């Protein structure tokens, strides 16, 4: 609400469209957060559902941020479309990397305990990819995730991480993040804004995706 109020008091030709963009983004974020919370009580989550949830959260958030910047920067309609696509793809790539760090990230860097997402049995992107892989490793991971709700032991957490890897979840998320970065940069460069902003956004996008995994 505060952000909308700030925009409402901004005297600029782009303000009406910016307010509509931000309002739509808030609705997407609410849908994404609702889905994320609902996953906690669901035994099975489809990979497409998990991807949609991530797109509605980080994808919508970064897409909107780029769109608002483009609006107030005087972007043309085609440029605005490319900037929005750049942000949405980067947001989804961010979620893939964040989920990888939630399992294999260095606690001194992430600030989270080792295997933090696995401890919470979070249905993150690499985990859902593994659970729905149809592999023996995915089936064993499913047994760990869906048994009685006592805390997993350290040995079980190590095994769960191995199973996500063996079932292909780790490689899949890494490949998805890398592919999304390529597509995002393609859209960014399609804006034909060969200036410092292009270079800075390129460096930021690479930092987002190429964080320590």
Chain-wise SSE layout:
Blueprint: H1 2-8, H2 15-39, H3 47-72, H4 77-104, H5 107-110, H6 116-119, H7 125-131, H8 136-146, H9 154-166, H10 169-190, H11 196-209
Helix pairs in contact: 1-2, 2-3, 3-4, 4-10, 7-9, 7-10, 8-9, 10-11
Structure in words:
The chain has one domain (2-209): Farnesyl Diphosphate Synthase (Orthogonal Bundle). 76% of the residues lie in helices and 0% in strands. The chain contains eleven helices and no strands. Helix 10 runs antiparallel to helix 11 (196-209). 35% of the residues are buried. The model has no long low-confidence stretch (mean pLDDT 90).
Can you give keywords for this protein?
single chain, 213 residues, mainly alpha, Farnesyl Diphosphate Synthase, 76% helix, elongated
Q: What name goes with the CATH superfamily?
A: Farnesyl Diphosphate Synthase
Helix content: over 70%
Shape: elongated
Average pLDDT figure = 90
Helices and strands, in order, run as: HHHHHHHHHHH
Instruction: Assign the CATH class.
Output: Mainly Alpha
How many distinct beta strands?
A: 0
Q: What structural category do the secondary elements indicate?
A: mainly alpha
Low-confidence sequence ranges: none
The end-to-end distance, rounded to whole angstroms, is: 35 Å
Would you identify the CATH architecture?
Orthogonal Bundle
- Give the biggest beta sheet: none
User: How much β-strand is present in the residues?
Assistant: under 5%
Specify Rg, calculated over alpha carbons: 19 Å
CATH fold-level topology: Farnesyl Diphosphate Synthase
Helix count? 11
